[in-house]
Automatic annotation (TrEMBL):
Start and end residues of each 6-phosphogluconate dehydrogenase NADP-binding domain: 2-154
Signal peptide location: none
Organism: Palleronia abyssalis
One Gene Ontology MF term: NAD binding
Keywords noted in UniProt: NAD, Oxidoreductase
Species classification: Bacteria, Pseudomonadati, Pseudomonadota, Alphaproteobacteria, Rhodobacterales
Protein name: 2-hydroxy-3-oxopropionate reductase
SUPFAM superfamilies recorded: 6-phosphogluconate dehydrogenase C-terminal domain-like, NAD(P)-binding Rossmann-fold domains
Coiled-coil intervals, chain numbering: none
EC numbers on record: 1.1.1.60
Gene that this polypeptide is encoded by: glxR
Length: 282
């Protein structure tokens, strides 16, 4: 299939690499061109050029503003001629998805993912889609290369809501884990042993296993999920909750701690850096 991928960040690049390896005819575009180096794909000059060359466009962009600029900006994806389906796989708001879908005659589907860079590399992402099973049929050759579990949630925007709900737990756990380790550190327990006991307990979760190196020595490892994007996720969650008049006091605290860490210069570091922040380190 002719597939376009816009957004070659930490997640988008390994996803594009998997689509190339699976034999799709892939065209890529990224705001900063160097990110495509080494990929066996055509580099489009603009998002419009990308959409001219692809039947299906996958976007993996930072946030609503980035996604809006790439879809609806001058020479944006929606100005292209060929693409009939746009899969927005970044974590964005449901309102943004509905706005995009209303702007074009093509189909815009929210298809955010759970999992991080190892899962993007291995094709084991959990994909939530704001579409019916029928609507996903022609997309299976793409989705099955990227993920090993695909949830068709029906209406546009539902997957965006679901993804935000999942990340409330991820970021809440990140915060509580940081506090727990700050406490065990202060009480003189060995960090590695304390982490492994938590990870092996009833509180253990898959993300503790694959993010273990970052919690044990964040500075020694590449960023997999920037702290600023975690704050963005919590902003999305709180805005959504406000719209439904749902109280989320714990999530508000998680958001505030992330924002405080970001203001202190931690935004580009991995979200595990919240541990260093809670410990008063730089
Ligand atoms: P990332 O490495 O920071 O990449 C962000 C991408 O968005 C880059 O390609 C960047 O282009 C592009 N971008 C940002 N602002 C833009 C703008 N105004 N116009 C055009 N392009 C713009 O982020 P990531 O970790 O891959 O995450 C991408 C999305 O997936 C986010 O919504 C994130 O929340 C979500 N997500 C991430 C993970 C994870 O573990 N990392 C897991 C699940 C979901 P440049 O290269 O030019 O900056």
């Amino acid at each position: 299939m002719r597939v376009g991928v816009a957004g070659l960040g930490r997640m988008g690049r390994p996803m594009a690499a998997r689509l190339i390896a699976a034999g799709h005819e892939v065209t890529v575009w990224n705001r900063s061109p160097g990110k495509a180096d080494g990929l066996d794909a055509t580099f489009a000059a603009t998002p419009r050029d990308l959409a001219d060359r692809a039947e299906v466009v996958v976007t993996m962009l930072a946030d609503d503003a980035a996604s809006d600029a790439v879809h609806r900006g001058e020479d944006g994806l929606f100005a292209g001629k060929l693409a009939h389906t746009f899969l927005e796989m970044g974590t964005v708001s449901p309102g943004h998805i509905r706005n995009l879908d209303a702007t074009t005659r093509a189909m815009v589907i929210d298809a955010p993912v759970s999992g991080s860079t190892p899962q993007a590399q291995g094709g084991t992402l959990k994909i939530m889609a704001g579409a019916t099973e029928d609507e996903l049929t022609h997309l299976r050759p793409i989705l099955d290369v990227l993920g090993d579990r695909i949830e068709a949630l029906g209406d546009r925007g539902r997957a965006a809501v679901m993804k935000i709900a999942v990340n409330m737990l991820i970021h809440g756990m990140n915060q509580t884990l940081a506090e727990a380790l700050a406490l065990t550190d202060a009480a003189g327990l060995d960090r590695t042993r304390a982490f492994d006991i938590i990870a092996g307990s009833a509180a253990g979760a898959p993300m503790l296993a694959y993010r273990r190196p970052l919690y044990l020595d964040e500075a020694a490892h590449d960023v997999t999920f920037a702290l600023a994007l975690a704050r963005k996720d919590m902003d999305l969650a709180l805005a959504l909750a406000e719209g439904f008049a749902v109280a989320m006091p714990q999530s508000a605290t998680t958001r505030d701690r992330l924002a405080t860490a970001e203001a202190a210069g931690f935004g580009a570091r991995d979200m595990a850096a919240i541990l260093a922040h809670e410990r008063g380190e730089t």
